[in-house]
Specification:
Porin; twelve-stranded antiparallel barrel; two-stranded antiparallel sheet; 1 helix; about 10% helix; globular
Length: about 210
């Protein structure tokens, strides 16, 4: 079996193990995604190759939540998979939805070299949303906005723009942008950045929520 997919299976088992250990006093949900290219903030995390991804979320009183998510990765590091652990609070104030929390990005097998934690806060109004994420260790900041547009025959078009600012040597600030057309469990995305020499990236994804 391919080492990369064996690694992501290990990550999925970790996530499912967490799910089985949680009390069902709140609401438990899970998700699974198969994608042709794991693109995150405009950059492929799998060297333009496919990824298997899965996560579990546990919600208390419809406001507090915690969860875990995993995916295989292949981007020049020692780790074969990514494991994200997060917790937050969401609520609605008037016509606005708000969400704030903390997320830890971990790469087992990478000796903690790339592990980092972000605080995030976001808001949404009708079909528009905005979010800011701040890296606690390096003060890197990612600001993003998105808009959804309903199309005929139940298709949905989502436009996204992100600005990544780095506060560390060797990193270049950049802007990423993408457009996604989705219907039901299937989606198609085109993504790019303003980084010199970068190319347009695409992916086709199938997502299932449980």
């Amino acid at each position: 079996m391919n080492k990369r997919y064996l690694a992501v299976q290990t990550g999925l088992f970790v996530v499912l193990g967490l799910a089985s250990a949680i009390s069902f006093a709140g609401q438990l949900s899970s998700n699974f995604t198969a994608t042709s290219n794991y693109i995150w903030r405009g950059v492929s995390q799998t060297n333009d190759e496919a990824a298997l991804q899965g996560g579990v979320d546990y919600t208390i009183n419809k406001n507090f939540y915690t969860g875990a998510w995993t995916s295989n990765v292949k981007n020049g590091t020692q780790g074969d998979y990514e494991l994200d652990l997060y917790a937050g609070y969401t609520n609605k104030f008037g016509k606005f939805d708000f969400d704030a929390g903390i997320i830890a990005y971990q790469y087992p097998g990478d000796a903690g070299i790339r592990d980092y934690t972000e605080l995030y806060a976001g808001t949404a109004y009708k079909n528009y949303s905005a979010k800011i994420s701040v890296d606690l260790s390096k003060t890197n900041i990612y600001i993003e906005g998105a808009a959804d547009f309903e199309l005929p025959d139940k298709y949905l078009l989502t436009a996204h723009l992100g600005i990544y600012s780095f506060d560390q040597a060797g990193q270049t600030d950049y802007i990423d942008y993408n457009a996604t057309i989705s219907k039901g469990e299937l989606s198609f995305m085109i993504s790019n950045t303003d980084l010199a020499g970068d190319n347009v990236k695409v992916n086709i994804s199938w997502n299932k929520n449980f």
